[in-house]
Fold this protein.
Amino acid sequence: VQLQASGGGLVQSGGSLRLSCAASGSFGRYTFKQYDVGWFRQAPGTEREFVAAITYRGGTTSYAESVKDRFSISRDNGKNTAYLQMSGLKPEDTAVYYCAVKGFWSTSYDFWGQGTQVTVSS
């Protein structure tokens, strides 16, 4: 399984970005639509932190308190892609953003993407 995160960039405070996470390769006996998707981020000198997640059927989403009401996670199983729509960006949102997937049966994320840099200027 390969995960390609994209869509990062430099944006002013208050701006918006949409990140994409495209999945490819073999999922073995399963397909992308049987995997939950999560977005995480890591700023320099900090631990990686959870941002948002969506279940494999897309029926349930969850968010970190710091991004709730500003970020929205979604997925298109037909395109094997998940998205993170970010609005009202703040300088403290600056980080490398990673997507990851875990099988609906799994308790931890199995595969990780390479990350995309998001920089928010004040």
